[in-house]
Design brief:
The protein is of the alpha/beta class. The chain has two domains: about 5-130 and about 260-325, no CATH class; about 130-260 and about 325-355, NAD(P)-binding Rossmann-like Domain (Rossmann fold). About 35% of the residues lie in helices and about 20% in strands. The strands form five sheets. Strands 10-9-8-11-12-13 form a six-stranded parallel beta sheet. Strands 2-5-1-6-7 form a five-stranded mixed beta sheet, sandwiched between helices. The protein has a three-stranded antiparallel beta sheet with strand order 15-14-16. The protein is globular, with a radius of gyration of 20 Å. The protein starts with a strand and ends with a helix.
Length: about 350
């Protein structure tokens, strides 16, 4: 049996309270200063995971005491690398044969390339399967609210990043038109040049034209309530989330789903609270699990691009092993039939029964 390791970190300072309850009473700046002097540590271990084909794995989760703010503004890239390397080595010492980089640890620097070069075990960012699940979830959500890709406009925010570009490349042929939104106009135009019927812009307000939005910037609060058209579907793949919490309160006529949430075969206890229902995990974690289950002990997804062939390969692994996209969640709560019905009405579609929606 091959084992996996996965590197996690707090998405915001107060999240450290899950491990250290006193943190909920401290200012964010104090929490981050305290974390600066801390090292990685094991935060969870899985039960044995048995896939549909009978293969098994188990794993360890190692926490890095860095928030996205610390990795992008409060510390140098080299300091972040040092902490991530320590965490990878800890996972390897715990018996991991392959290690996945979670959230910002897969974003900082060169997308895991440098970490992999100095590691004694293979590394993956998990972005290939993240793309696969984002595409699957987006298309299913659009179907549920009565949309048809061939007559719909797609917008991808963060389209020059590895996940955003891959999602746009694979989805654009299915849609009437695609709007690519990035921070840099020249880079976004370069991506648009590779995709038929794609338009490049740096203005997030362009999503007002979109029936379907995938957002993956990790910048936080990029998608505001006023920007969305009634009946829109938004797949938020970013962690921390890109969609403002105000959308949940003020826009009942749009469907926001969390991208990349997957049900693990057998729904085992994963040994760490990710804020998901039992037996579910991020797609990037599941890619790491699948590498261990299939015996593909290699650095699979690295760098600032995602290969279409690898997206398709992870999809085949998931089918064979029994991983599948979990029920839709929005702002850490299940999406209800009533929510679907409200969004269908906003699109002028008849409300269907639960049996018809299945």
């Amino acid at each position: 049996m091959h084992r996996f390791g996965f590197i996690v970190h707090p998405l915001y300072a107060k999240q450290a309270a899950r491990k250290y309850p006193v943190a909920r009473f401290l200012p964010d700046g104090w929490i981050e200063r305290l974390m600066t002097g801390m090292g990685p540590q094991v935060v969870g271990r899985t039960e044995t995971i048995q896939a549909a084909d009978g293969s098994t794995t188990s794993g360890v989760f190692v926490g890095v005491p860095l928030t996205p703010h610390m990795m992008t503004q409060g510390a140098s890239v080299e300091h972040s690398y040092e902490k991530i390397r320590e965490a990878v080595e800890m996972a390897a010492t715990e018996g991991a044969d392959v290690v996945g980089l979670g959230a910002f640890t897969s974003v900082v620097g060169d997308g895991g390339v440098t970490i992999a070069e100095g590691s004694r075990v293979p590394i993956t960012t998990g972005n290939s399967y993240t793309v696969a699940t984002a595409i699957e979830g987006t298309l299913e959500a659009l179907r549920l609210v009565g949309g048809d890709p061939s007559s719909s406009v797609l917008a991808v925010i963060g389209s020059t990043g590895s996940i955003g570009k891959a999602c746009a490349t694979l989805l654009a042929p299915l849609f009437l038109r695609t709007i690519l939104i990035g921070r840099d106009q020249a880079r976004t135009e370069a991506v648009a040049a590779e995709i038929e019927n794609a338009f490049a812009t740096t203005d997030p307000a362009a999503i007002a034209e979109a029936d379907c939005v995938i957002t993956v910037t990790s910048s936080g609060n990029v998608v505001q309530s006023s920007l969305l058209r009634p009946g829109a579907v938004v797949c938020d793949v970013a962690r921390p989330r890109d969609v403002s919490a105000a959308v949940a309160k003020t826009r009942k006529d749009v469907l926001v789903i969390e991208g990349g949430v997957v049900e693990v075969p057998g729904k085992p206890a994963l040994g760490f609270d990710f804020g998901f229902p039992a037996g579910t995990a991020y797609a990037c974690m599941c890619e790491t699990m699948m590498l261990a289950l299939t015996g593909r002990i290699e650095s699979f997804t690295l760098g600032k691009s995602v290969e279409v062939s690898k997206v398709e390969e992870t999809r085949r692994w998931a089918d064979a092993l029994g991983f599948h996209v979990a029920g839709f969640r929005s702002f850490e709560a299940p999406v209800s039939p009533e929510t679907i019905a409200t969004v269908r009405r906003a699109r002028g579609k008849p409300v269907q029964t639960a049996g018809q929606l299945a």
